[in-house]
Design goal:
about 375 residues, alpha/beta, TIM Barrel, 6-stranded parallel sheet, 9 strands, about 40% helix
């Protein structure tokens, strides 16, 4: 088995634990019956850490136990009951800031609970030095990321608190409109040229993140918003979990001009493992061959170069190929890269070094 270390650009483990009411993260430590990530599978797959996302789903997807813990959110609970019951995470119904903030802090606290109760297994890292040190000490390095900034109000007053809780990366928008920006939908085929760009609050958010060394993630953002971030930001442009639009015309994927702008900024794109964002016809083909993933890597490398391509699996948030199955299957992707002709140095960059070097430039 190939033991190449992996630092990953995106996973939704914290959401999965929150939805199952595992507020201590016990199943991550001792093993989950489903999903893509737990400690034993991380060890098997040589998964060293990554961006652990906080994504707040529509209210009708929140677990009943959440409402029991937050009776003050009765209005949001009523709204959830009025909707057709659904566990569909792709529900793009807009959510309130109060609900989003309560859910966000709970998910962040799950990460803190795991780190506090198992300090030899996992650590929340807030800068490059801590990330390197954590990995050297053979612990999972967790970088806290928010996918969609609904937890933050337009005056950004909650952001300082979230920063103090360890937040170091923000995607201003998921695939639903909020007070900061518009995201792309999941139609296929389509382009990311959908809707308006950043609001004034969104522009202020980007500037604040630059000042505080909080990474801004462009995945899910529509094209107009993308170009406005590019004009405002003085940091490298980053898409933590997106693919190549010319190979798979999903609006979640990046056009040639977007990729060129990221390259010009010395930014990074993380390859999304989602089969619908890889398959040329957008099919949810669980038997998707790993060489198709390598074709996207090839296309990214052609524009971004060896220092601008990484992995952004979307584990626990997307359907992935059975040829990987979960994070224990990461060595199979590495083997496919080798079969494609990638050398060890390039594989090390894609799987590990490029994210660490990018974070040194962005979060400090």
């Amino acid at each position: 088995m190939i033991n190449t270390p992996v630092f990953d650009g995106h996973n939704d483990l914290l959401l999965a634990l929150w939805r199952s009411n595992d507020l201590d993260g016990t199943d991550f430590i001792f093993g989950r019956q489903k999903g893509h990530i737990d400690l034993s599978r991380c060890i098997k797959g040589c998964f060293k850490g990554g961006f652990f996302a906080v994504f707040v789903p529509a209210t009708n997807v929140a677990p009943q136990t959440f409402w029991e813990r937050h009776p003050e959110l009765a209005k949001d609970k009523k709204k959830a009951k009025e909707k057709m019951p659904s566990s569909n995470l792709l529900n793009t119904e807009q959510i309130s800031q109060t609900y989003a903030y309560a859910a966000t802090t709970e998910m962040i606290n799950i990460a803190h609970n795991i780190a506090t109760q198992h300090p030899d297994k996992l650590e929340i890292c807030t800068d490059y030095t801590k990330l390197r040190s954590c990995i050297d000490r053979k612990k999972i390095a967790l970088l806290l990321h928010i996918e969609g900034a609904e937890a933050i109000s337009s005056d950004l007053s909650q952001l300082e608190t979230l920063y103090n809780m360890g937040l170091r990366s923000i995607g201003p928008v998921w695939s639903r409109k909020n007070i900061f920006a518009e995201g792309v939908n999941f139609s296929f085929p389509s382009t990311p040229d959908q809707g308006d760009g950043l609001t004034d609050a969104g522009k202020n958010l980007i500037r604040f993140c630059n000042r505080k060394n909080i990474l801004v993630d462009l995945s899910h953002l529509n094209e107009k918003g993308f170009w406005e971030v590019a004009a405002i930001s003085d940091k490298p442009l980053v898409a933590t979990h997106s693919n190549v639009h010319s190979l798979c015309p999903s609006p979640r994927n990046l056009t040639q001009s977007q990729l060129a702008a990221i390259a010009e900024s010395n930014g990074v794109v993380g390859l999304n493992f989602g089969i619908g964002f890889l398959h040329p016809e957008g099919k949810q083909d669980k038997d998707l061959r790993l060489d198709i993933m390598c074709k996207h890597l090839d296309a990214l490398l052609k524009i971004l170069g060896e220092d601008g391509v990484a992995l952004g699996s979307d584990f626990d948030g997307i359907q992935i190929s059975n040829h990987i199955s979960d994070c224990s299957g990461l060595p199979k992707l590495v083997a496919s890269m080798k079969k494609t002709g990638y050398g060890d140095n390039l594989i090390q960059k894609i799987c590990f070094e490029n994210w660490l070097n990018l974070l040194k430039k962005t979060i400090g």
